[in-house]
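SUBJECT: A protein chain and its fold
Encoding: whole-number codes for local backbone shapes
RECORD BEGINS BELOW THIS LINE
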Amino acid sequence: MNTGSDEPREVAVAPDEQIDHAPDEAPAEQGLGSKAPEFIKSRRLLHLSWQVLVFVIGLAVVVAGIIMLPLPGPGWVVIFAGMAIWATEFVWAQLVLRWTKRKVTEAAQRALDPRVRRRNIILTSIGLVVIAAILGVYLWKFGFEMPWNIKDQ
């Protein structure tokens, strides 16, 4: 999986200190790794407990999002919120979110392409004409009668 880094070897740890950048330079992406407070990271048992807590909360949110996929609700938004919770502690979730953000940005750029928009408008118009024709034939043949109330004709 491409993580979006141009560097051949990316270090998966949070930087210890901030690096000063020249005014014309953009700061580098935030480092990978735990975003837990320093007092939690300094104690191994507390940090492990923190990670378990973050994992359980993130899992609950992701499961709620999965449940919302077939049901009414913002399923994908909740799933990505759970991934964001996981990304505060786990490098793998940070990499997945980085990859997802890049793919969504690419899809948005493609969707804004005038040729793609024109094609989508044409296909939508054709689909609406087909649906209107089917509805017109149904109304002409059966009137405003519901399909389950139609007797043999």
In short: Residues 14 and 70 are 38 Å apart (CA to CA). Residues 5-28 have pLDDT under 50 and may be disordered. The chain is about 60% helix and 0% strand.
